[in-house]
Amino acid sequence: MPDLPRPIAILPCTGLKAAEQGWNRRGFRRPRDQAFDEYCMLTDQAGAEVHRARTAPDWLVPGRLIDPATDGTRSIEDARGID
After folding, report:
1. Long-range contacts of 8-13 (CB under 8 A, 24+ apart)
2. What 3-state DSSP class applies to 63?
3. What is the mean pLDDT of residues 58-64?
4. pLDDT tens digits, residue range 1-54?
5. What is the CA angle 76-82-83, rounded to 5?
6. Is 20 helix (H, G, I), strand (E, B) or coil?
């Protein structure tokens, strides 16, 4: 069966090295020839891929959620009970 194109999600993170170590514990590895500082492509033995990209330090804030209704953010406590 030929390889078919497939979408790959690019997951943002502020701690790229720590994120990579977490995915390593799940069996994902970075190819030896990959030397990007701001981007990380990881694969497992079954061929699954996870891509991680470094974000601006203030882009991901613990305890804050994106509010799709306003394109703003709200605290997790404010978001409780929202359907």
Report:
1. 8/49, 8/50, 8/51, 9/50, 9/51, 10/51, 10/52, 10/53, 11/50, 11/51, 11/52, 11/53, 12/52, 12/53, 12/54, 12/55, 12/59, 12/60, 13/52, 13/53, 13/54, 13/55, 13/60
2. coil
3. 67
4. 567 777 787 888 878 888 889 999 999 999 888 878 888 899 999 888 899 888
5. 130
6. helix
Q: What's the pLDDT at 83?
A: 45
Question: What percent of the chain is predicted at pLDDT more than 90?
Answer: 14
Which residue type occupies 37?
D
> Is pLDDT at 56 greater than 70 in this prediction?
yes
